[in-house]
Amino acid sequence: MADALKTASPAPRARVQAMKEYHPPLGCRDTLRLDFNENTLACSPKVREALAAVSLGSLTRYPEREPVEAMVAAHLGLKAEQVALTNGVDEAIHVLFETFLEAGDELLLPVPTYTMYEVYASATDARVIAVQAADDLRFPFERLVAAITPKTKVIAIANPNSPSGSVATREQILELARRAPQAVVLVDEAYFHFYGETVMDLVGTVPNLIVARTFSKAYGLAGLRLGLLAGPLDLMRWVRRVLSPYSVNSLALVCLRAALADTEYLDWYVGEVLAARSEFEAALDAAGVRRWPSWANFILVEIGARHVEFVRLMRDAGVLVRDRSSDPGCDGRVRITIGTREQMKQAVVALNEAMAALRSGGETR
To answer: % helix / strand / coil in the chain, to the nearest 5?
Structure first.
């Protein structure tokens, strides 16, 4: 009996055992981080001021996110009840899938796309229907429409999409919502600020549309884990039933107020990234590196069979980039985050040296 107690252990449910694992790569802060699509510089200086004003006593109390949700809703032109703050957009996706997906349901997922959609969907008993984009990686609208069935319960659209940087048009999103009235159409606008187009204004008008946003990208609050879901009242009440009431911490709520208020800093950073993106695209073209059009703060490039060496050479030069070869249809392709113009000058030097080494068959470092 004692031996049995030592060796036996509880088994998780079968669905958990079958889940796809996700292991984020570890980075070195002494390098230029162009691998996670984060803000590569800093959050608003007003966030630091807000943190400095936090009292020790306030940390003894559970966070109250409702007042901040009301402020965010007003910022978006919505009612407070239409917005739920989450522990990053990851929790938003997880909660949404737990709310609406069950056995026999189908999630339509255009791929390649954000890995965590499939990870969180695999924790449910729903079936993931992957809809592959063509080689140009444009949004596969026609293929998605053809894949809709009565079992379709969620259609997840990252807009702009990662790792491709492609977008779905407003008309395509509306048509999908119309053709699948039984399904929640999730539009994940994590990179909205670098694109400028949104369907947030349709929340509450389109009955099956839910929009997700994150404060990890343009706002530079990735370490605080802040996201949101916005949707019709009758859908959001079910989402709130699943959502933990205290998953967003007090420091994040304090910082969010400050970050939202500093529109001048946000506009400056976004403008800097867009200018840097244009300059980096020109550098890629000059280097003869194939790239895909991007409406986000990153660019997907074609490296080919030696993509692993390329990533290593860039890392040795002090620049981290993300190998996306394991994504569907992305063999040999690498995603590069766009930072400031000054940072991207360093990236261009590293890229040119890496490509020269690969083309010569050797290494420069």
So the answer is: 45, 15, 40
Residues in a beta bridge with 209? 185
| Entry pTM | 0.93
Distance CA 284, CA 225 (A): 33
Q: What is the CATH number of the domain that holds 242?
A: 3.40.640.10
Please identify which residue in the block is written with the tokens 């965590």. 116
Distance (Å, whole) CA 141 – CA 122: 23
CATH number of the domain encompassing residue 340: 3.90.1150.10
Quote the DSSP letter at residue 176.
H
Q: How many CA atoms lie within 13 A of 258 on its CB side?
A: 19
Q: Are 186 and 154 in contact (CB under 8 A)?
A: yes
Last residue of a domain, one of 201, 234, 261: 261
For residues 50 and 115, state if they share a domain: yes
In a shared domain, residues 131 and 276 = no
Torsions phi, psi for 42 (to 5 deg)? -175, 160
Question: What range does the domain containing 193 cover?
Answer: 45-261
Task: Say which residue the tokens 């280097």 belong to.
Answer: 287
Q: Do residues 269 and 216 both lie within one domain?
A: no
Q: What does the DSSP 8-state code read for residue 29?
A: T
Overall domain count for the chain = 2
Tens-digit pLDDT profile for residues 176-201: 999 999 999 999 999 999 999 999 99
Whether 365 is covered by a domain: the verdict is: no
Write b or e for each residue in 1-31: b if 16 or more Cβ atoms lie within 10 A of its Cβ, otherwise e: eeeeeeeeeeeeeeeeeeeeeeeeeeeeeee
**Residues 339-362 pLDDT 10s:** 999 999 999 999 999 999 999 875
Closest CA to 165 of 136, 202, 122, 141: 136
